[in-house]
Amino acid sequence: ALVVPSSCKIKPSEKLAHTIFQVPYKSEFFEHDLARLEMEGNKLHLFKKVSETQITMCERFLQSTELQEQLKGVDIIVYDSLATCPATMLGERFGIPRVEILPLPLTAPFVLNHMVPMPISYVPQLFTGFSDKMNFMERVVNLGAYLGGNLLVHIAFYRPMNALKVKYNINPERTFQQAVGDAELLISTADFALEYAQPLLPGRKKGC
After folding, report:
1. Closest by alpha carbon to 123, among 37, 199, 58, 57?
2. Among 102, 101, 99, 111, residue whose Cα is nearest residue 198
3. Looking at residue 82, what DSSP letter applies?
4. How far is CA 131 from CA 79, 122, 189, in A?
5. pLDDT higher than threshold 60 for residue 105
6. How far apart are CA 181 and CA 186, in angstroms?
7. Pseudo-torsion of CA 144, 145, 146, 149, nearest 10°?
8. pLDDT, tens digit, for every residue of 48-93?
9. How far is CA 143 from the centre of its chain?
10. pLDDT grade, residue 111 (50/70/90)?
11. What Cα–Cα distance (Å) separates residue 80 from each residue in 4, 12, 20, 84, 99?
């Protein structure tokens, strides 16, 4: 089954069940409002808006108990990273394995929960404009971008998600970050021909 928010314009397929859950956004919000912030270069405001949107859409999904019950018996959840919250919450609540598709390079702060190695002395962080040939000061700045990016994601995204786990009683003893890291597989759609070299180690389950 394909589950999408009402704000997405996705044509239903005859071969796949198509389920929609209502959200307080229209597609114009993404096509105009968020696109305008991107074109203006207002990255911080854009990130804030995207985070708020994700939290709202996730809660709307969690409020739809009927939809969750319909999905209870699925074998696996395959989802885009933008749908991390509802997919993770559903997978944790019903013990469904998950496969995440990341439309970003593996230097994004979101991948840390998947135990992806991040040698910040050699791999430039997003938006720094550095190459893999950094001098000492550039490495210091790169470290600051790494720490700052993770702090921003924690405050704007993970902290509200943890509050949702507690509110809807979805294993509140575990953090949202731990739940995200339980995905069986992470697929990055970034082009390795364009990204800087980075060692990638095989993933492992905790306790193995």
Report:
1. 199
2. 111
3. G
4. 31, 8, 21
5. yes
6. 9
7. 120
8. 777 888 888 899 899 988 888 888 889 999 998 888 899 999 999 9
9. 22
10. confident
11. 11, 18, 16, 7, 9
pLDDT digits (tens, 9 = 90+) for 115-143: 887 888 888 887 788 887 889 999 999 99
Tally of CA atoms within 13 A in the half-sphere of 42 that contains its CB: 11
Q: What is the pTM of this model?
A: 0.79
From 87, 105, 118, select the one nearest 182 (Cα to Cα).
Answer: 87
Q: Are 6 and 23 in contact (CB under 8 A)?
A: yes
DSSP-derived letter for residue 134 is -
Quote the strand ranges of the chain, DSSP E. 2-5, 18-21, 77-80, 98-102, 185-188
Cβ proximity of 86 and 55 under 8 Å: no
CA distance 35 to 33: 6
Residue 32 in this model has a pLDDT that exceeds 70: no
CA triple 147-194-99, angle to 5 deg: 70
Q: Which residue has the tokens 């050699």?
A: 122
The answer to whether the beta carbons of residues 75 and 11 sit under 8 Å apart is no
